[in-house]
Amino acid sequence: MKKSTALLLFFVLAKFSLQAIVVHPDFDLHRDEFLHLDQANHLAWGYLSVPPLTSWISVIISWLGNSEFWIRFFPALFGALTLVLIWDLVERLGGSLFARSLAAITLLCSALIRLNILFQPNSLDILCFTLVFYTLIRHFQTEKNHWLYILGLSFALGFLNKYTIVFLAAGLLPALLLTKRNIFLKKHLYGALILALFLISPNLIWQIQNGFPVLTHMQLLSSTQLVNNSRIGFLMDQLLFFYPSLLVWVAGLGGLLFWKKQSEFRFVGWTFLFTMGIFTYFQAKGYYAIGLYPLLLAFGAVWISSTVEALKPASSKIASAVILIMPPLLFLPAITLIHPFYSPDHIQSNPPNYARLGLSRWEDGKEHPIPQDFADMLGWSELAALVDSAYQLMPEKDRTLIICSNYGQAGAINFYSKIPELEALTMNADYLYWFDLEQKVDHLILVWEADEKITQREIGFFEEYREIGKVTHPLAREKGTTVHFLRAAKGDINPVLREEVKEEKKVWEERN
């Protein structure tokens, strides 16, 4: 086996190993992961908040047994593939083994480790950003037109995964106009665009048929989450994501803009600046821009290696060793802060100083004991156990409907429940369109958030009511969520439920 191949294999194994050890086994899955997993049971060409590709991966996970291992495997895989792609790109840019190793280490010692622990569209989004750049660079290097069609395929894959790749396209267009105008004279570029449009057209048709729900989702996101962001905060986040390799990506950006040897690929640097400008203007979440950095790390590694290798042999060896060891040394102290590394019990008894890195500030703009992502990974299995205990009290032959306050609750119950026939729903997110009210509902289990109270009107529809229990985990975002048992409807409650679902859909459509 070649030395370079063996070293690449080492870094890939290190990637998977890191992803496994940074999540303590006492943590559940994340709130958003449950929605994506449930989408596998309701396949469509689009959903209210995301395109369809994640649901297809959920189907594969279901075929593999739907275990936490496979749920965590796929985002780690996409992170590993990003590393492999950058390794190959550095080699094709003329980078030495030192340059390839530096690029791999900087990717390992970055915010990608945190993103790659969650089964969300973000990990594949970063891979698709990297693929778009990679295919364009390979086209300019080889002048072979098939790379343009792979570019179209890469963009389509990214679009069907997450719509943020549109922002990359918006930054890439003026960058190419500024530096590579001749590409717009190539008919194969338009062939690639037609290919991309063809591949994404089912999702576009779905959006048109459903009134472009993505626009409503963006409006809600802007009014409830992005409004709490600031442009300065977005830019400050960029310094944290790759802080162990800050000098590497800055060198990459500088080399792309000013180094003559990299002038052929100057469009990458301008794309970074244009896309960052768009994200900053819209007060985007900081992690939206992470997909722009792997390319800067690649070019930075090439620039640094060429500088270091120009030194005298003794000085070059010392400088190379220092440069390679610095990112891990800087990253190591942050591992326990930016990942759910410690057990929840340890966090309670000896809480890390999350606020030092601004990690305990949630989307509501307020400070909390732990990062929001961590709080969204607690209490779910406890909630599912409460619902199971309520479900077992119901008559076997009668239909019990489980209605929750939010999609996290519904998805978590569906995933962690020990009762195969159980299905939880909620009147928000995509679950709103998954209700089947043709069959008579005899009993209800209501899962309400801590600040929601069950009303006498709801109780009055049933022969028996009792409160089963609450989520008690002190660090869970769902702490206080209550499970209510409502047995034996006094009459036909389906019309009432249909009306409530209809009203919720009406609210959604009016927003749209």
Keywords:
5-stranded mixed sheet, alpha/beta, about 60% helix, about 500 residues, about 5% strand
Give a description of the structure.
- The protein has 512 residues and is α/β, with parallel strands linked by helices.
- It folds into 2 domains: 3-337, no CATH class; 380-511, no CATH class.
- It has helices at 3-21, 31-38, 53-63, 68-92, 97-108, 112-115, 121-142, 146-161, 165-179, 187-209, 213-224, 231-241, 246-258, 266-281, 293-308, 313-331, 335-338, 344-349, 372-375, 380-391, 407-416, 456-460, 494-511, and strands at residues 400-404, 424-426, 443-448, 462-470, 482-489.
- Strand 1, helix 21 and strand 2 (424-426) form a beta-alpha-beta unit.
Beta strands, count: 5
Give the number of domains: 2
What distance separates the N and C termini?
57 Å
Task: State the secondary-structure class.
Answer: alpha/beta
Alpha carbon gyration radius? 25 Å
In spatial order, strands of the major sheet run 2-1-3-5-4
Task: Name the shape in a single word.
Answer: globular
The secondary-structure element order is HHHHHHHHHHHHHHHHHHHHEHEEHEEH
Characterize the largest beta sheet: strand count, sense, and whether it forms a barrel.
Answer: 5 strands, mixed
Provide the helix percentage.
55-70%
Mean pLDDT: 91
Number of helices: 23
The residue ranges in which pLDDT falls below 50 over 5 or more consecutive positions are none
Strand-residue fraction?
A: 5-15%
SSE blueprint and pairings:
Layout: H1 3-21, H2 31-38, H3 53-63, H4 68-92, H5 97-108, H6 112-115, H7 121-142, H8 146-161, H9 165-179, H10 187-209, H11 213-224, H12 231-241, H13 246-258, H14 266-281, H15 293-308, H16 313-331, H17 335-338, H18 344-349, H19 372-375, H20 380-391, E1 400-404, H21 407-416, E2 424-426, E3 443-448, H22 456-460, E4 462-470, E5 482-489, H23 494-511
